[in-house]
Amino acid sequence: MTSAKDMAIIMKEASHLLAEMAKSKKFSFDLMTAAQQSKMEKVEQLIKSTGIKVIPKVTYTPDGLNLHFDSGKDYNDCCKLTLKLRWS
């Protein structure tokens, strides 16, 4: 039950971030550009500007953006979610 509750929080935060990316071309472009230029401070600032509290670790590849959400809980390596978004 605890894991499910923690994961529900992560899913809600990830969903909110995805919604922001889907509705704002400028936000998505700025996020993609900052990631591709390795401006991780700018990437984090943009993500925080959406109002989410669970800030993902961001990595990128030539193909896309990876967002690694973690509940921060230490029990049983609990509650991680990775989103892989392809550049287009």
In brief:
The protein is α+β, with helices and mostly antiparallel strands. The protein is built from 3 helices and 3 strands; from the N terminus they run αααβββ.
C-alpha-based Rg, rounded:
13 Å
As laid out across the biggest beta sheet, the strand order is 1-2-3
Q: Main β-sheet: number of strands, strand sense, barrel status?
A: 3 strands, antiparallel
Spans with pLDDT under 50 lasting ≥5 residues?
A: none
The number of distinct helices, counting runs of at least 4 residues, comes to 3
Helix-strand makeup class:
alpha+beta
Mean pLDDT: 91
Taken from the alpha-carbon principal axes, the silhouette is: globular
Q: Strand content of the residues, in percent?
A: 15-25%
Q: Give the H and E element order.
A: HHHEEE
Binned, the helix content reads: 40-55%
Number of DSSP-assigned strands = 3
- Straight-line distance between termini: 38 Å
Molecular structure report:
With 88 residues, the chain is of the alpha+beta class. 49% of the residues lie in helices and 20% in strands. The protein is built from three helices and three strands; from the N terminus they run αααβββ. It has helices spanning 2-23, 25-36, 40-48, and strands at 57-60, 64-70, 80-86. It has a three-stranded antiparallel beta sheet with strand order 1-2-3, covered by helices on one side. Strand 1 and strand 2 form a beta hairpin. Helix 2 packs antiparallel against helix 3. It is globular. The N and C termini lie far apart (38 Å).
Task: Compile the SSE list and pairings.
Elements: H1 2-23, H2 25-36, H3 40-48, E1 57-60, E2 64-70, E3 80-86
Antiparallel strand pairs: 1-2, 2-3
